[in-house]
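A note from the maintainers: we've had questions about how concatenated examples are separated. There is no special marker in the raw files; a new sequence line simply starts the next protein. For clarity in this README we add a label.
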Amino acid sequence: MTAGATGFILVNLSSQPNDVVFISGSLPSFTIPFLSISFNSAATIKTELAVPNTVSVRMRRDPGFDRDSAIDNQLVFHEWAHYLTGRLIGNGSGMVTNQSQGMAEGWSDFTALLLTARADDALTPSNSTFNGVYPVGAYVGSGGDNDGYYFGIRRYPYSTDMTKNPLTFKHIQAAQALPVGPPRNSNQNLPINASNAEAHNTGEVWASMLWECYASLLRDTQGPTPRLTFQEAQTRMKYYLVAALKMTPINPTFVEGRDALLVAAYATDPV
C-alpha cells in the first residue's frame, strides 16, 4: 500500500488444481482489495511477467454470479440439516455409501423447503394445492438470471407436478436418461451435468419424495373443513422427520429411509 498498490494477489504455495483457497490465521491490516488464487493459476501470470510483459488483472466480485450463500436462508438451513442427519444417523459416520450420501443431500434440501414454505403460498393461483414450484437456493442460484428463481441450485425445482419436476426413483441411476420435456437448469456452475448418482443429483430424488409427503399434509389444511392448521402440518412433518432419522439405519437405502418415515407417521396418525 505504501508503494501505491491498488490491490494485491495472494498465491497459495501448495499446488492445487483449482482456485479454491482457504485462508486460516490472521492477515496484516490492509484496506485495499485482494484476490486469492491457486499456485497453478499463479504460474500462468508469472510466465507472462517474465517475458517481460505488462499483465493486466481485473479483480471483481460479480454480484450476479458470486452471491454470498451466508445470506441465503435456505442454504443455511440446508447446511444445518447436515448436522441433524449426521448426528442422528450413525453419530457422524452413518452415511458413507453413495446412496446414503445422496439421501443426506436430499434431507438437507427438504429441510430448507420445510422451514421456508408458508401458508400464504397457496394464495398463488398456480400453487393453490401446493403443487407449484419450490426452488432451493434461488438467491444464490439466480446469478443475474431470473431462471435461478425458478430452478434454484438444482436441475429442477421441487414440485408435485411431474411436468415441472419429473424425477422418480429410477433417476438415481447413472445411466438413466432424464425425461424429455420439462425444462432443466442450464447453470453450468452446478453439478447438473454430472451423473444421476452424484450426491446432490441423487438427493433431488429423495427430497422430492419427502416433499410429496409434506405437500399431502399441507393439503389437509385446505377445504371447507380442514383437518389441520398450517402450523400443525409443519410441526407434524418436523416430528416425523426427526423420529424417522432416529429409526433410519446406518448407510440407509431409499427404501429403508422411506419405511422409517412411514412408521413415524403411522405411529402418530394413521390417517
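[label: protein 2]
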Amino acid sequence: MEIKSSLIISTYNWPEALNLVLLSVKDQYILPKEVIIADDGSGDATKELIDSFKQDFPVPLIHVWHEDKGFRLAEIRNKAISSVTSDYVIQVDGDTVLHKHFINDHLRAAEKGFFISGSRVLVDKIGTENAQKNFKINFHFLSKNIKNRLNTLRIPFLSPYFEKKTYNLEKASSTVRGCNMSFWLNDLKQTNGYCVEMTGWGFEDWELSARLINSGLGKKRIKFGAILFHQYHELHEKSGININEELYNITIREKLIICKNGIQKLE
C-alpha cells in the first residue's frame, strides 16, 4: 500500500540554509504529500523566502510559526505535527540538504512497530558557504569539503541488509539524529509528541525516542540510504541542557511513555 508522507522542516532565522533544503525537496524523486516548516520564531526574511517558494512549489508548503521566546524546538515541532494530514512523518532540520531519493528511502524503510533514524554527511564551512552562494544541492562521494564521506553512498540493494533494529532503551534513544528521523503519526500522538518542558538545545530527540521505545516500538537505523547533508554552523548555545538531560534521565528511569506537556496541550 502506498504511504503518503508529510515532511517537517524545523528552522530558525537562517533563510540561506533553508533555501537549499527547499530546493532539494523540489528535486525529490518521490515528493511528500505536504511540507510543513516548523519555524521557531524567525523574522521576515524567512517568511519572504517561504512565500516565494509557495508560488511554484509542487506540494502544499505550510508555514507554522510562533513568536521568538528562546529555543523552543520541541513546541514548534509539536505544532507542526498537529498540522500533519498524512499517516507518516519525516523530520529534518532547516540546515540540511536532501539526497534526491531521501523521501523515497524513508518510505521504503517504513515499517509498523518502528521509527527510523538516519545518518548525515557533514559539509564544512567553506563547502556550506559555496553551496549557499551557488544554490548547490548535488553532493556526492567525490565532493570536496565534506566529512563522513561513506555516508554519501546510496546502495539500495544493500541497504536492507545493513538496517539495524533495536529495542535497547538507552542505545536506541542516545544514537538518534533529530535532523534525520521518521515516524508513524499515530505513534507520535500516542506518546504525546515532544516534551515542551525541554527548552534550550539538546536531548529533545533522545527523550522522545526513549518514550517511543518504552511504548513498545523499536528503532530502525538506515544505512546506504536516506542520505542527508548537514550544512556547517557554529555549535549551539547550550543553556538549559542540564535540565533537558535530567528530563531525559527521568524518562529512562521511570519508563515513561507519555509526557505531560506535549501535542495534547495544543489541542
